[in-house]
Amino acid sequence: MKKKDLEMGLQKVRNFEDPDASLEQYMTPAVTAADILFDAYRKGDIEGLKVVDLGCGTGMFTIGSWMLGASQAIGFDISESALRVAEGNRKELSADVEFRRSDILDVDEGADTIFMNPPFGCQNRNADRPFLDKAMELSECIYSIHMANTLDFVIDYCAKKGRDVPYYKIYKYEIPHTFSFHTKMKKTVDIAVVNIR
Fold it and tell me: For residue 145, which of 103, 114, 181 has the smallest C-alpha distance?
């Protein structure tokens, strides 16, 4: 599959119907998700492997992993409304993936590769730490999205757990006006996708 075809497929993944501010529910844009997934695919981290998407939301990384040939793709999320949309996306795209409702702390499904776009901690400080801890417990290969200004912290946090960040990439991330506390129609921030090994 070409990256352009992956991107076109991911543009069919529907967004949150009723996003929860406390969970910082923002869908990863298809263009960004396709780039992250395709980088992982080129490194041999998807095809034929078991992939887990922690905090899967509406299923962007779960479905994208399936499109790139993952042998198994499972998404976990605590939000019932997000998983309803994810199930709709699964059916609409005839994706052979699975979605399960679970608090991140209760997930015990090991994986070859984990993808996650955890809360940035804007609403609940340090909200990304349980995701990092759980991902490092479950997999040797993780792709995780964080605010770029926390990159040094994330690298240091992983190092203290005996893990390396051999690769990261910075993206522009457009946050649309979604919640009542948003004062602008959209805000652009820098995010860092880190590969933890």
Answer: 114
Q: List beta partners, residue 189.
A: 173
**Encoded tokens for 100:** 């399960």
CB atoms within 10 A of CB 193: 22
Distance CA 17, CA 7 (A): 21
CA 60 to chain centre: 7
DSSP bridge pairs for 171: 191
Is the CB of residue 11 less than 8 Å from the CB of residue 5?
Answer: no
**Left, alpha or beta for 97 (phi > 0: left; psi -120 to 50: alpha)?**
beta
Tokens representing residue 21 in the block = 């501010």
Sheet containing 186-196: order of strands? 98-101, 72-77, 50-54, 113-116, 142-147, 186-196, 167-176
Ranges 33-47, 80-94, 99-113, 119-133: which has the least confidence: 119-133
Q: What is the mean pLDDT of residues 12-35?
A: 84
Say what the pTM is.
0.93
When pLDDT is averaged across residues 100-128 and rounded to a whole number, the result is 89
Q: Phi and psi at residue 124, in whole multiples of 5°?
A: -125, 110
Q: Please compute the mean of the pLDDT values over residues 150-174 and round it to a whole number.
A: 96
Q: Rounded to whole angstroms, what are the CA distances from 30 to 70, 111, 162?
A: 18, 23, 32
